[in-house]
Amino acid sequence: MEGKTVLDFIAEGDIPFSPGFGMRPLVLAGRDSLTGQIGRAFRTGPRDPWFTTVLVGDRGVGKTAVLDAVEKSARESGWAVIHEQAVEKEGLLALLLKDLVKEAGSLWTRTKKTLANFDIEASLGTNVGVASAGIKIKSKPAARVPTEITRDILRVVGVHAKQQGRGVLLTIDEVQSWTAEGELNALAAALQIVTKREQLPVAVIFAGLPVSLEIMSGAGTFFERVTNSTVEDLPRESTEYAFLKTAEKRGVLIEPEALEVLVEGTSGYPYLIQLAGYHAWPPVGSPRVITADLARDGVSRARQEMDKLYSGRWEKCSPMEQAYLWAVAEVGESATAKDIAATLKRSTEQLGPTRHALIHEHHVLDAAGYGKVVFSLPGFSAWIRSRDPVEIPEYHPRRC
Hints:
Helix 8 links the parallel strand 5 and strand 6 (202-208). With 400 residues, this protein is α/β, with parallel strands linked by helices. The protein is built from 18 helices and twelve strands. Residues 1-12 and 126-144 have low confidence and may be disordered. A five-stranded parallel sheet has the order 2-5-6-1-7, with helices on both faces. It has a three-stranded antiparallel sheet with strand order 10-12-11. It has a two-stranded antiparallel ribbon with strand order 3-4. It folds into three domains: 31-116 and 144-230, Rossmann fold (3-Layer(aba) Sandwich); 234-313, Helicase, Ruva Protein, domain 3 (Orthogonal Bundle); 318-386, Arc Repressor Mutant, subunit A, CATH 1.10.10. The longest helix has 24 residues, at 292-315.
């Protein structure tokens, strides 16, 4: 178009909606109360129950976005901030401690000198003696060393942070994947001493799927007592705000009818909000307005992508696992193990391994109280019900 430069077209094409699990939205809507609660805990200190918190929720509800906001606030206050993401079947403790040593050392010179005495890899790997604050510690049984070096490093960093009038924030995402033997136990034992007993300013925010609470409770009573908060879908008002404010930041208007289509079509699910907003964005060179037609097309294309996501998860499941998912969808919300067993004509004991795999390996179901399960992906249940009923595999008991 006449009078426009390449930069103008780049600006118009800069879509502010960012679909993708773990992506940071341009506008964090509906989470002010949660981030405010955590921020107040940072100001209050270790005695605040939110100083150590577990955020749980389904995939795509914005747990990582909340972590990002909390981290940004802590950095602006001069805190040492470390963010890690757990990966299935991989250790995390050594990386966490090494990154903490590096970050704290870059902020506080005295801390760097003290932490230079620690040999994290040797302590966690070959079980040689560790040095704490310049004092040599004799070798200990392997099971105790991770706890000791974790405690000692957190203590040194916490003391120096307190002297500076600052704090330390550790954020750990996808915590349900942190299953390396003994590592969560070591962190729990160290936090019990450093944060709770000694009241040093070392805050930890975990985030993960609802099954995280079950996994963490198995790592000691410390995690059974920490605050946990469920991150849920957005209410209507926050959904409207997410669309309007995000578009406004790029000078784009949303027609009232279009807004209604977007809000109704996404049901407050943050991942779907980003996906629909992305696909509804006005093409380069067109008026800077999201019309009702663009909104309908955006929601339709977003739903198609969700269908692909559901299909991918479905295909990774065995026939028996698919039958179990179908039974959960048929029984309805908060299906009990007894109801599912009756639907599949199996005993709850026979279905135990299938249930465990769907929760802990495929992450498509969440435990929802004693014997109950719910879908971890919003809309997955409706997608399954829209398909033809599955064939329930025959049961073949194991022979001794």
